[in-house]
Design goal:
Helix content is 29%, strand content 30%. The protein is of the alpha+beta class. The strands form three sheets. A four-stranded mixed sheet has the order 4-7-8-9. A three-stranded antiparallel sheet has the order 1-3-2, covered by helices on one side. A two-stranded antiparallel ribbon has the order 5-6. It is globular.
C-alpha cells in the first residue's frame, strides 16, 4: 500500500519535510508536491520522521530541552523504565514529527510468551527491556513501529534468545486474525557483535 498522492495533507507533510521547516513564499501545494516527487520522496521519507529512542533515561528533563529545540511539531511517546540492573532505568520511545505522521493510539510493550503454571501465567524467559510498539499513520499508510534494545553483555546466547523471542512474537502476531496491522517496522539497538 502506498501513500494516497491525491491527499493534500500528505502532500503538505512531504513538502514540509523536504524544506526542513523553512518558510516559503510559494504556498502552492501542487508545485511543492511536484518538487517532492522530483526529489523522489516516498513512504520511506515519511518513516524517517520517526526516530526510535533507546537508553532514554528515567529522568526526562534533558530530553524536554531537546524537544523544545526541535520545535512544537515534534512529539514523544515513551515507556516506563525498569529499575533493576537489566533495565538500567531506561525507557524506550518514539520521537516523531506530527506534520509527517500521526500517532494512532496503540502504545504497548511486547510481552514475553507465558504459560500456565499452577494458577499463574508466567514467562519462561523475559526481555531485559521489553520492546515498545506504537501505531502511526501517514496519509493512508498506517503501520506499527517497534523499538527494541536487546540485552547487552558477554552473553551472545542471551541476545540471540531475546531476538528470537521478538521474531517469534512478530510471527505469531502476523498470523493472528486480530492483528492490529501487518506493516511492522522494527528498529533500535540490537547489540549485535562486531563481525570484524
Amino acid at each position: 500500500r502506498g501513500l494516497d498522492k491525491a491527499d493534500r495533507s500528505v502532500k503538505w507533510r512531504l513538502v514540509q519535510k523536504m524544506h526542513f521547516l523553512e518558510d516559503r513564499e510559494d504556498d502552492d501545494p501542487d508545485a511543492l508536491y511536484r518538487e517532492a516527487l522530483e526529489l523522489g520522496l516516498d513512504r520511506d521519507d515519511i518513516i524517517a520522521c520517526i526516530k526510535a529512542l533507546v537508553e532514554l533515561r528515567d529522568n526526562l528533563e534533558d530530553f524536554g530541552r531537546v524537544c523544545r529545540f526541535l520545535g512544537p511539531s515534534w512529539d514523544l511517546v515513551y515507556s516506563d523504565w525498569m529499575s533493576d540492573a537489566g533495565g538500567n532505568r531506561e525507557r524506550t520511545g518514539f520521537l516523531y514529527d506530527r506534520r509527517a505522521v500521526v500517532f494512532n493510539g496503540l502504545a504497548a510493550e511486547v510481552d514475553a510468551p507465558r504459560a500456565k503454571k499452577d494458577t499463574e501465567y508466567l514467562a519462561a524467559q523475559s526481555f531485559w527491556r521489553a520492546p515498545y510498539m506504537c501505531s502511526f499513520r501517514a496519509g493512508n499508510f498506517d503501520f506499527i513501529a517497534i523499538a527494541t534494545h536487546t540485552r547487552w553483555g558477554d552473553s551472545l546466547e542471551g541476545r540471540e534468545a531475546e531476538l528470537g523471542m521478538l521474531a517469534d512474537w512478530i510471527d505469531a502476531r502476523q498470523k493472528d486474525k486480530s492483528v492490529e496491522d501487518h506493516d511492522l517496522i522494527v528498529m533500535g539497538d540490537f547489540n549485535t557483535p562486531s563481525l570484524d
